[in-house]
Structure formats: C-alpha cells, structure tokens
Amino acid sequence: MKRLQIEPAVTDAQILTIAGLAKEIWQQHFTPIIGAEQVAYMLERFQSYSALKEQLGEGYEYFLLSLEGTPIGYSGIHQEDKTLFLSKIYIKEAHRGNGYSSQVIDFYSSLCRERGLSLIWLTCNKNNTNSIGAYEHMGFRKTRTQVADIGNGFVMDDYIMEKKL
C-alpha cells in the first residue's frame, strides 16, 4: 500500500481542487443513494469553492489527500470542545478499499492526541452501507440517528458514529 500524503488545504488552488474532487466523487458515489437533484443541491451548498471558503472562515480545516502528488480525495474536520467532528472524508472510487481512509483516521487520531481531544465523531447517511462498514472496521460505533433539514425540501438521514480515543 502506498503512503497517502495528507496536506492542509489553505490556498485557493487547493480549495478549487477539492471542489472539483467533490463534484466527481459525489456524483459517482451519492447519486444512487440520495439522487441527482439532492447531490447537485448539496454540492453547491456544502462542497462548492465558495462554501468551502466560508467553512474555512468558520474554523473548519481541510486536507488534500494525494498519492505521489496526484490528488485522490479530501477530508474536512472541525474541532468542537474536546471532540473532533469529521465533517468529510471522500476518496475517488478507483482508490477506495486500499486503506487510505484508515491512514486519514490514524492521522486524525494523532492530531486529537496532540490537541487533547478524546473522541472523533461523524455523520453518515443510513443507506451508505459501504462507508458505514468501513467506519465500523476503523473502530467507529453508531451512537444515535439524526434527521437534519438542509433546505430545498431535502433532509440528511444519518447515523452519528463515534470513535473514542
């Protein structure tokens, strides 16, 4: 397995790269789960260049995931008190199943230890069974459910999953 490069995304070029990755990954992965209309809405609202820039201004941190300098995915986090919210972790289809998500979680676990945080938590669509299985394999457990109105007639119907450190 190749070692994943995890680089903080701070430049406009990096944020543009992430927005492009989001479009590719979301259309491929989430269209069968939530439909093309909701994917388009969520890309614009949460994953577009302007949305990502706004989130950076609100304390979110983004990371570009690369192999030998080629971007294959991205991730986003937000520190909340003594926990770390894993907002996003997305990897291109061709690179899934190679342990890269585990490398990202290991990276965040180390970051949590450095920052004195005791828990990583995330939300995952209830029908995203492959991702749920991957998170459970990495030590996350479902702790509760959440239905969030995101506007335009759409909801996110998720499990909240946690990994204690």
Automatic annotation (TrEMBL):
Residue ranges constituting the N-acetyltransferase domain according to the UniProt record: 8-165
Keywords: Transferase
Pfam families (alphabetical): Acetyltransf_1
One Gene Ontology molecular-function label: acyltransferase activity, transferring groups other than amino-acyl groups
Name listed for the protein in its UniProt record: Protein N-acetyltransferase, RimJ/RimL family
Matches recorded under InterPro entries: Acyl_CoA_acyltransferase, GNAT_dom
Domain of life where this protein originates: Bacteria
UniProt source species: Lactonifactor longoviformis DSM 17459
